[in-house]
């Protein structure tokens, strides 16, 4: 790939302690074939020097509009970019971007860019939660920018809370998905929407050691979460027993059982525009929980395990929509008569869309690829051929966004 063929990315770096993590993001962008121009603020250079940015990117890393004025950098950099990523985005930078202030090269670049823009905020919890910051974030999202929710964790000093810069790998994944969507990403068709996604597989305890579970790893639900973040949504991910890293920008609620998942989904769905039930929720749970490990007795057969039904979360949220116009998407994992069983389930559950796929020991669960047919309540069928799970995730959001419109 020649330099002219490479996607052109502007990496804006704000003046926060997390600036050092942007070096890892820069490495991932350059090593994956992107031509990256780093535009730090003057404050950012107190944390990572200009020589480091220039060496890692292969381009000069200026901060002032008065440098190389014959090239008009404050206009040209933004005009020629395919994507602008700001990481870390400080409270000051978010405020300037929201109000159109342009007092350095980075803020000028943000004004001239006509490509998708991704902000990865990092600041103390109090600064993130301040009404001024929240209004600035809402303004940027309304304009089509993708503002990733900060992570929860250790901040500077002894403080912990929401405001930590998401993992650079996760910021890279969001950036890659935004670039993949191309010009459509400028519109951020899920901006201003709150979506709830369930992922993984529930586990129903039999005793302190054993449980009834399934093979779901959560990969499809996590792909849905990452895709929704890249399209501008506020994402709540209810994750059941998945070991996958938390997607950047998603608020992750971790649960274990079907009952816990129901409680978390109902709570999050109260103000959600869409709910996607991608988790494999157990239909049954043991009727009795043994407080001690069930022992194997020589010469004795084990007692039968009595089961009781778990709540049907998909049917419940479909029948009792938390708000008018809420869209509900279900998943149907079938082993035979896939479409016949899928159509019957769609009618029984009452959801708007049902993603039907065939599962088995070596199909779908744990795999990186998937294929499915998306059935709609109006009778439409959308086949999605075999391919990466993120492709299926994108197609599902296409169908959801069309219903919003």
TrEMBL record:
| Function of the protein | Catalyzes two steps in the biosynthesis of coenzyme A. In the first step cysteine is conjugated to 4'-phosphopantothenate to form 4-phosphopantothenoylcysteine, in the latter compound is decarboxylated to form 4'-phosphopantotheine.
E.C. no: 4.1.1.36, 6.3.2.5
The protein's UniProt keywords, in alphabetical order, are:
Decarboxylase, Flavoprotein, FMN, Ligase, Lyase, Magnesium, Metal-binding, Multifunctional enzyme
How does the cofactor attach, per the note? Binds 1 FMN per subunit.
Tell me the superkingdom of the source.
Bacteria
Q: Which family does it belong to?
A: In the N-terminal section; belongs to the HFCD (homo-oligomeric flavin containing Cys decarboxylase) superfamily.
Protein's name according to its UniProt entry = Coenzyme A biosynthesis bifunctional protein CoaBC
Region annotation (Phosphopantothenoylcysteine decarboxylase) ranges: 1-194
Asked whether the UniProt record includes Magnesium among its keywords, one would answer yes
| A GO term from the CC aspect | phosphopantothenoylcysteine decarboxylase complex
The Swiss-Prot or TrEMBL record lists the needed cofactor(s) as: FMN; Mg(2+)
Which is an annotated Pfam family here? Answer: DFP
Instruction: Tell me which residues bind CTP.
Output: 283, 293, 311-314, 331, 345, 349
Pathway assignment: Cofactor biosynthesis; coenzyme A biosynthesis; CoA from (R)-pantothenate: step 3/5; Cofactor biosynthesis; coenzyme A biosynthesis; CoA from (R)-pantothenate: step 2/5
Instruction: Outline the extent of the DNA/pantothenate metabolism flavoprotein C-terminal domain.
Output: 190-402
Asked if the Swiss-Prot or TrEMBL record annotates the protein with the keyword Ligase, the reply is yes
Q: Name one GO biological process term.
A: coenzyme A biosynthetic process
Organism for this UniProt entry: Streptomyces himastatinicus ATCC 53653
Q: Where is this region: Phosphopantothenate--cysteine ligase?
A: 195-405
One Gene Ontology MF term: phosphopantothenate--cysteine ligase activity
